[in-house]
Amino acid sequence: MALTSPSSSIPSYVLDCARQYPAGNQFHRHPTVLTPPTLDNFGQPVALVPSGSEIYLTSTTDITTNPAWLNGVKPDSNGKTNGATSCAIVVNDHGSGLVDAFDMYFYSFNKGNTVLGQVIGDHVSDWEHNMVWFENGLPQAMWFSQYSFGEAFTYGAVEKHGQRPISYSAVSSHANYAITRTHDHTIPGLNLPFNLVLDDHTDAGTLWDPTQNAYTYSYNAAANVYTPYIAGTPTNWLYFTGAWWRPAVPVGDPR
C-alpha cells in the first residue's frame, strides 16, 4: 500500500503497532524557561536562555512527595489512556515502498535497579519506542528499544494479539521486550535469561492500545520536518533538543 499524503489519514498498516502500559504526556518543566509549557511552545526554548546554558525539563513540584502525575495514566478496559496522549507515531517514508513507523512512548518516571542497597537509574521522564519496518505495505521487522540499546526481530517471529504485534514493557524501566521473562542487561546489548546484576522483568500485564490516543506525524528526514496527519496536532515539541529531565539534583539541595 502506498503511503498517503500528510494531509490525509495515516496508513492503516502503520496502525497495526505495538501495545504496552504507558504514562501520560504530562511534561515537566523548569519554571524560568517556559511559563506555562505547552506542546507548541517548548520546542524552541534556546532563544529564552543564555547561550551555552543547560536546557532541560523538570517539575515545579517536589517529586519526593510522590505527586500523582508520577503514576501516569492506566489504560481502561479497552486499552485507551483517557485524558493522556502517551504515544507519538512517526512515519518515515524512504520511497520505493520502504517505510519506517516509530511508536514513541512517554513515561513520567523511570524506576531504576537497586544494586548493593544503592538505587541506580531513577529519573523523571522516560522515552522508549518500537519501530516496524515495512516494504510495500507489509511488515518485515520490528525493533524494541532498551535504554540506549535494543533488539530487532523478523516480524513473523514477534508475538501477536490478533494481527497486531505485542511489545512487553518492563516493570519500572519501560524497556521493550518481545517476550515475558527476566532480562538481565548488565552487559550492554546482551540480554541474559537470569539475574546477574541489572535486570528487567516483563509479564502479560495491562494491555495498552496506543493507537486510540496518539499523535501521528509523517517525517521528512532530508528536511527534518514533521507534518501532522491531523490538522492542529502540536508539532513544535518534536524539535526540542534539550534534556527531558534534570541530570541531577543541584548541590546543596536537601533532597
Query: In DSSP terms, counting alpha (H) and pi (I) runs of 4 or more, how many helices?
Result: 0
Largest sheet: 7 strands, mixed
Give the spatial strand order of the biggest sheet: 7-6-5-2-1-14-15
Cα end-to-end separation: 54 Å
Helix-strand pattern, N to C? Answer: EEEEEEEEEEEEEEE
Q: Indicate the low-confidence ranges by residue numbers.
A: 1-8, 18-35
Number of strands: 15
Strand content: 25-35%
Q: What's the shape? A: globular
Helix content: under 10%
Q: How many whole angstroms does the radius of gyration measure?
A: 19 Å
Could you report the average pLDDT, rounded to the nearest whole number? 75
Structural class: mainly beta
Short description:
Strand 5 (123-135) and strand 6 form a beta hairpin. The protein is built from no helices and 15 strands.
Description:
The protein is mostly beta strands and 255 residues long. Helices cover 0% and strands 32% of the residues. It has no helices and 15 strands. The strands form five sheets. The chain has a seven-stranded mixed beta sheet with strand order 7-6-5-2-1-14-15, with no helix packed on it. A two-stranded antiparallel ribbon has the order 3-4. It has a two-stranded antiparallel sheet with strand order 8-9. Strand 8 (160-161) and strand 9 (164-165) form a beta hairpin. It starts with 86 loop residues before the first strand and ends in a 27-residue tail after the last strand.
